[in-house]
Each structure stands twice: as structure tokens, then as C-alpha cells.
Please model this.
Amino acid sequence: MDVIVYNSKGVDTGKKVTLPEDVFGIEPNQHAIYLDVKQYLANQRQGTHKAKERAENAHSTRKLKKQKGTGGARAGSAKSPVFVGGGTIFGPRPRDYSFKLNKKVKSLARKSALAAKAQASKISVIDSIALEAPRTKDYVQFLNDMQLTGRKTLLILPDLDANVVLSSRNVEKAKVTTAAQVNTYDLMNADQLLISEAALSTIQTLFNQ
Model:
């Protein structure tokens, strides 16, 4: 699949680049994408939720009323879950939500996500982007030139560029990552992928290991 290469001003450079077929040309595996996104979201959960159960409640254990003769149900400790302020029945406890996923499945998921974006024509290749200093308005101008203002974008670079990262940090719906750090969730969450021409070879090498 051939795509046009743009410069950082959003102008067609007049050349095209061929996306690697073994990454961008495969049949997307939707289940692999689902599993990888599920693992990513599960790993974001802290799992620190906790509710006090009956044994942990600070109420007194005295009997609230006599056993018989009141015309109501029997009642013991105020810690009982049936009373306001009592313990919680089967309340949430701290737990780890993370789970294992094979490397080959994760690799397939990332390739499937890239292939799905390629088939939907949601990939733009840029020759390079270099900012002299961290300035948010420079990155906003870059998105304006690419006609992507207000859309979710993911810029994939071959290596981390501090100026680009800092410039994009306060831009809503914009994210910058490297070819080695990109994940399936970010790929699927973006409306448009912006891939540096130099990052394509890195993607092909890493995703086919």
C-alpha cells in the first residue's frame, strides 16, 4: 500500500512510501485487539477499592433490643449489614486486575490495529517534525496544517523528541509516542495516525520479532 508523504507544513512532498505489507497489509484480528485493549485497561486499574465488612466496623456489639416481644425482627449487633452504618456484605476488596497475555498475541494485536487504520485510510506519513523549542502553539499549528484540529491524533516517532513531547502535552486529543512504546489501545483510540517516515522501518522490525 502506497501513501503520500507530507512535510511538517502539511504539504505533499511529491513522494510516496510503501507501507510494509507484513504489518499494514494483514487481515486484522479483532479478538487479538480486544484482548490487548482489555489487558491495557485492566493494568490501569489501581485495585485499591475497599469497603468495611462486619468484622471491621467500629460499632458496639451490644444487643440492640430484647429478643422477643417487640413485634419486629430479632436484632443483634449494630454491625449487622441490615442496619444503616453496618458492615457491607461481600464488599470490594483490594485486588490486582492485571493478567498475562502472550507476546505473540500482543504483537498480532498491534499489527492488526495498524492494518485496520491503513484499510480505513487513517494513516498519514510525514517526512519529519522538528521543533526548536517546546512551544504548544507550534504543535497546534502543525495540526492545523495537517487539517487535524479537534481530532484525536497519535504521532509515532522513531525516537523520543523532548521538544515535540512537551509541545504536545497540553494539546487536547493529541498524543506523541515512539515506535517502540506504541500500544494497541492508543492506536485504536486515535482518529488519525501520524507516522514519521523514519519510524516505519522500526515498526516493521519490532512488530515482526
Q: What stands out?
A: The chain has two domains: 2-45+99-207, 47-96. The mean pLDDT is 92.
